[in-house]
Amino acid sequence: MAEKKESLLGGFKAFLMRGNVIDLAVAVVIGAAFTNIVNSVVKGLINPIVGAFGTKDLESYSSCIKGTCKVVNGEIEGVQLQWGLVLSAVLSFLITAAVVYFLMVLPMAKILAKRAAHDKAKEGVAETMEISELEVLKEIRDHLVAQRGPSTGTGTGAGSGAGGGSGSHPTS
C-alpha cells in the first residue's frame, strides 16, 4: 500500500513538474490579471463613453418584454432583458481578443515564421554542402583516374575510357 502511495505521489509530482503544466498555470494567472485590466478599461472608459451618447451607463441599458419593468418596493416588475450587460461583455471579449492577437499571437507567428525560414535555409545550405562535397569527391576521383592513364590498366577495365585513349585498342 505504501508503494502505491509513493507511485501516486511520484506520478503527481512528475505531472506537476512538466513544463506544460507550469506554463499553463502561469498563463492562467496572467490571463486573470489581464482580464481584470480589460474589464476595468471597459467599465471605466468605454461604458461611460457609450453611455454619453445615450442617457445612462452601457450596463444600465435594458428592455422590458413583459410588463412595464417598474421598480416597486426594491423589486423589478415585469421581464427585463439587460442587453447592456451583454454588450459590455462582448466589448470586453473583443478588446481582450484584439490585445492578445496583436500583442502576443501576431508577433509570435512572425518569430516562428522567421525561425522556420532560417531552419529551411540552414537545411538548404547543408544539402548544398553535401552535394558540393560529393561533386568535389567525384572530381578528385576523375582526376586520379585521369592521372593513372591507360598504361596502368590491369585488364579489368577499371581505368578504360577515362585515360584519353591512345589508340592501342584494335577496332576491327
Description:
This protein has helices at 2-17, 19-53, 83-148, and strands spanning 63-66, 71-72, 75-76, 79-81. By secondary structure, the protein is mainly α. The strands form two sheets. It has a two-stranded antiparallel ribbon with strand order 1-4. Strands 2-3 form a two-stranded antiparallel ribbon. Helix 2 packs across helix 3. It is elongated.
Number of helices: 3
| Mean pLDDT rating | 76
Instruction: Give unreliable regions as ranges.
Output: 157-170
| Radius of gyration, taken over Cα atoms and rounded to an integer in Å | 39 Å
- Termini separation: 94 Å
Task: State the strand order across the main sheet.
Answer: 1-4
* Helix-and-strand structural type: mainly alpha
Largest sheet: 2 strands, antiparallel
What's the order of the H and E elements? HHEEEEH
Shape: elongated
Write the layout of secondary structure elements.
Layout (H helix, E strand, L loop, with lengths): L1 H16 L1 H35 L9 E4 L4 E2 L2 E2 L2 E3 L1 H66 L24
Antiparallel strand pairs: 1-4, 2-3
Summarize the structure.
The protein is mainly alpha-helical and 172 residues long. The protein has three helices and four strands; from the N terminus they run ααββββα.
Q: Which features characterize this protein?
A:
172 residues; 3 helices; 68% helix; 4 strands; disordered C terminus; elongated; single chain; mainly alpha; two-stranded antiparallel sheet; two-stranded antiparallel ribbon
